[in-house]
Amino acid sequence: MEEKKDQRSKKKKLAIWTKYLLDIMFYGGIAVTVTLPFSVRKIGELLPLLVEHYEETVIIYFVLGVAAVVLLRELRKIFRTVLEEDCFVQENVASLQKMGNWSFFIAVMSAVRSIVYMTIAMFVVIFVFVIAGLFSKVLACVFEEAVRYKQENDLTI
Fold first, then answer.
1. Which of 48, 104, 151, 152 lies in the 20 to 30 Å Cα band around 123?
2. Are the beta carbons of 81 and 19 closer than 8 angstroms?
3. What is the model's pLDDT at position 157?
4. 113-143 burial string, b = 16+ CB within 10 Å, else e?
5. Contact partners, residue 129, CB within 8 Å, separation at least 6
6. pLDDT tens-digit profile of 36-60?
């Protein structure tokens, strides 16, 4: 019994630390997105291609930054329910659906960015976000079933 309690405590700590990491990423993402006009110019000193396409770069990365922050916001919502130990709720299904949509959007915008200047790393980013989008959509279906089972079970009690 004590071992089960210890495992549960470790899982809770992992969820809490992950939530803190998501918070840092969320607020950091906002800061990075807001400072793009300045940071692109500064980074452009090392990578002249960025300054060559300054406006396009700022716009594309701003859109990508906003999309990433919105995606992180949905993930933070899910983690709140995990910490409350009530994660099989309809709101999480909606968040997972939105996360899938935003992941696909990021993949498409990354492909658009590749038109401005192509890098091999961008293909990896596109692939990762397509997989993340598919995973989120499938997970939303799984959560929807779990919510349905939970609601049926609550009605029988």
1. 48
2. no
3. 55
4. beeeeeeeeeeebbeebbebbeebbebbeeb
5. 103, 104, 106, 107, 110
6. 999 999 988 888 877 788 888 899 9
